[in-house]
Design goal:
single chain, mainly alpha, Mitochondrial carrier fold, 0% strand, globular
Length: 306
């Protein structure tokens, strides 16, 4: 029963991490999606840069424009983060086996993170599709159908494209999450281990205030750096996913590598990395918030970690 209770707590801590991530990161994500959807077309760039895109959103739609699709993100990412962090923690414990030295091990981290990432891609695909379609539409109708809410978007997508339509971009999401989260957790586990080793040495204070500040600081740095590593490694796959999910052409290929090749021919390497600025600007604070929320929720819930 105790093991089941600890597992449930891991899922609750993961949900807290997801909520924190959306609150901090959604406005940056809106800018990223608009750049990816509108700056990779054959008609040329709509926005000069991330600042221009943000200014246009605020001018035309106000602050609410930056949080378009956020309701589906809150629901989707809370469930996704709960499953992701919970499954990662459980898989890591199972694979830890003979590795009881407290050090991170690639042969434990990579399969745990990749499997967890692949699992949550099934949830992320439909929630990100509705989020992206909400984000790319402005005040005027841009792609033929006006969506009043994420639910309206999901219903209309199902009506016009069927179940297959709501899972557009699934393969790109699967690759992004499996590869990206292996990179994320390798970076997180190793950076956290090295920072703790350095700051736990006798030269530093052991007061409760220092310990709390140290834990928060390590959470911020390890989470932020890991988030940037994730997106640096997988942004081209994310560009392909956004194009697949938001392009009005129902016959567009769903093969992410074929779509990336098309984007490269249209917009070069900069097209494959469209939205890099706001993505990295979002990655540090959003993932720092997620990791701090995850670690502190675990402490409050009494979960013991190395």
């Amino acid at each position: 029963m105790a093991a089941a209770g600890d597992a449930a707590k891991e899922y609750v801590a993961g949900a807290a991490a997801g909520v924190a991530q959306v609150v901090v990161g959604h406005p940056f994500d809106t800018v990223k999606v608009k750049l990816q959807a509108h700056n990779t077309t054959a008609h040329g760039k709509v926005y000069k840069n991330a600042f221009h895109c943000t200014s246009r959103i605020l001018l035309e739609e106000g602050i609410r424009g930056l949080y378009k699709g956020a309701s589906s993100s809150f629901i989707g990412i809370a469930v996704e983060s709960s499953l992701f962090f919970g499954t990662y923690s459980q898989a890591k414990q199972l694979l830890q086996g003979n590795y009881e030295d407290g050090r991170p091990h690639l042969q434990v981290i990579i399969p745990s993170a990749a499997c967890s990432g692949a699992l949550i891609s099934c949830i992320l695909t439909p929630t990100e599709l509705t989020k992206c379609r909400m984000q790319v539409q402005g005040k005027d109708v841009m792609h033929g159908t006006r969506y009043s809410s994420p639910l309206d978007c999901a219903v209309k997508t199902l009506e016009s494209e069927g179940l297959r339509g709501i899972f557009r971009g699934g393969l790109a999401t699967l690759f992004r999450e499996a590869i990206g989260n292996a990179v994320f957790f390798c970076t997180y586990e190793y950076s956290r281990y090295w920072m703790h080793n350095y700051l736990d040495s006798p030269r530093f204070s052991s007061s409760s205030h220092f310990v709390m500040a140290k834990d928060i600081g390590i959470g911020v740095m390890s989470g932020g750096i890991s988030g940037m590593a994730f997106w640096t490694a997988t942004l081209p796959l994310d560009v392909a996913k956004t194009v697949i999910q938001t392009d009005p052409d129902p016959h567009l290929s769903r093969n992410p590598f074929r779509v990336l090749s098309m984007v490269y021919k249209r917009a070069g390497m900069s097209g494959c990395y469209a939205g890099l600025g706001p993505t990295l600007a979002r990655a540090f604070p959003a993932n720092a918030a997620a990791i701090v929320a995850w670690e502190y929720s675990a402490k409050i819930l009494g979960i013991k970690r190395g």
